[in-house]
């Protein structure tokens, strides 16, 4: 049943009527065979919740496939292309379910809170290392404050906390693609500023890697 | 966002750790710092965006499944997958589907 060539898939899905209906039915079956790989470990399989979710994902995928047929360039098998769309739809939905109750990390602090990092107990590091690290921490902090916008700092904090980009983006009022660009810009800025100050990330790292030596 | 929040981010001090408080905090701090700096050192001037990667992910997955050296053939895609947790997660699922010839 999935013996169609790429061209046949496209032709049938564009045909309307019976050929299209048959192609959609076949494609639905193919997507359903792929979805367990997306769901595994993320939501209990065969639960009523997962069944409803699967149906929603399949519907969404078929719709997107039809809407985006023009963008299929034939660089892969048509079914791989359709699986790709299904996986994205599935993980987007699963992330939404998993993270919907979680607010973006936000900590209400006072301006003078910066004393906290000065007295970090570290029995293993030498006094010199501790001084190095405090200085470096201050320096990195200053660079972050000077180079990044608030949105960039929030985005980086969120992803460091394990937030999916997709979810952080939604809370920051943008899409995932825009958030990636925003964070890329943030990373570039920090990197270039470090370079300007004569530091490489590796050098900074080495100051912190002496922990425990 | 205030200064201390950034410190907390760098220090990871808002995280609960089960290990001994002092070493836990220390480990967290350097772990966070390491994460940030590793990200910085892996940052390239030109990187693909999520949408650009999505557009070729099917092709990439099939090449990889055939055993092609994808990080040489499509280095920017590979780099994005290394940097972007969302795309990486989606790619891993797609890869399993392709490898199992579902
Ligand atoms: Zn991405």
Overview of the molecule:
The complex is a heterodimer of chains A (213) and B (102). Chain A is an all-alpha fold. Chain A folds into two domains: 6-99, Rna Polymerase Sigma Factor, Chain: A (Orthogonal Bundle); 115-209, Arc Repressor Mutant, subunit A (Orthogonal Bundle). Chain A contains nine helices and no strands. Chain A starts with 5 loop residues before the first helix and ends with a helix. Chain B is built from six helices and no strands. The longest helix of chain B is centred in the first third of the chain and has 21 residues, at 21-41. The relative contact order of chain B is 0.11. The complex binds zinc ion (ZN). The site of zinc ion (ZN) has 6 residues of chain B, from helix 3 and helix 6.
Question: Which helices and strands appear, and what pairs or packs with what?
Answer:
The complex is a heterodimer of chains A (about 210) and B (about 100).
Chain A: H1 6-15, H2 17-39, H3 48-67, H4 78-99, H5 127-147, H6 150-160, H7 165-171, H8 176-196, H9 201-209
Chain B: H1 3-11, H2 21-41, H3 50-65, H4 70-73, H5 75-83, H6 85-99
Q: Which fold does the CATH topology of the largest domain in chain A refer to? A: Arc Repressor Mutant, subunit A
What count of domains describes the coordinates of chain B? 2
Q: Helix and strand succession of chain A?
A: HHHHHHHHH
The CATH architecture category of the largest domain in chain A equals Orthogonal Bundle
**Residues in helix, % of chain B:** over 70%
Helix content estimate of chain A: 55-70%
Main β-sheet description of chain B? none
> Overall pLDDT of chain B, averaged?
80
| Category by helix and strand content of chain A | mainly alpha
Which labels suit this protein?
heterodimer; A: 213 residues; mainly alpha; Rna Polymerase Sigma Factor, Chain: A; Arc Repressor Mutant, subunit A; 2 domains; 0% strand; B: 102 residues; 6 helices; globular; binds zinc ion
């Amino acid at each position: 049943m999935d013996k169609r060539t790429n061209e046949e898939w496209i032709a049938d899905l564009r045909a309307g009527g019976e050929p299209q209906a048959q192609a959609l039915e076949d494609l639905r079956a193919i997507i359903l065979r792929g979805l367990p790989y997306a769901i595994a470990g993320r939501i209990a399989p065969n639960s009523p919740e997962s069944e409803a979710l699967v149906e929603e994902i399949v519907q969404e995928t078929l719709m997107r496939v039809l809407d985006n047929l023009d963008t299929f360039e034939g660089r892969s098998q048509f079914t791989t292309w359709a699986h790709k769309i299904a996986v994205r739809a599935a993980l987007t939905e699963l992330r939404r379910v998993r993270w919907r109750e979680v607010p973006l990390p936000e900590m209400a602090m006072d301006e003078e809170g910066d004393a906290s990092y000065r007295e970090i107990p570290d029995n293993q590091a030498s006094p010199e290392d501790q001084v190095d690290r405090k200085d470096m921490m201050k320096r990195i902090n200053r660079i972050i404050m000077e180079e990044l916008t608030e949105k960039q700092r929030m985005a980086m904090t969120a992803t460091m906390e394990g937030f999916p980009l997709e979810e952080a983006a939604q809370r920051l009022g943008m899409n995932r693609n825009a958030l990636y660009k925003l964070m890329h810009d943030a990373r570039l800025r920090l990197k270039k500023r470090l370079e300007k100050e004569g530091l490489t990330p590796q050098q900074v790292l080495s100051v912190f890697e002496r922990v425990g030596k | 966002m205030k200064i201390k929040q950034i410190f907390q981010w760098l220090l990871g001090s808002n995280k609960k750790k089960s290990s001994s408080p002092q070493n836990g905090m220390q480990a967290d701090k350097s772990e966070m710092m390491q994460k940030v700096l590793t990200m910085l050192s892996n940052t390239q001037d030109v990187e693909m965006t999520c949408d650009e990667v999505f557009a070729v992910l099917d092709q990439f997955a099939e090449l990889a499944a055939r055993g092609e050296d994808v990080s040489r053939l499509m280095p920017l895609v590979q780099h994005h997958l290394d940097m972007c947790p969302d795309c990486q997660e989606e790619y891993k699922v797609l890869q399993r589907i392709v490898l199992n010839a579902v």
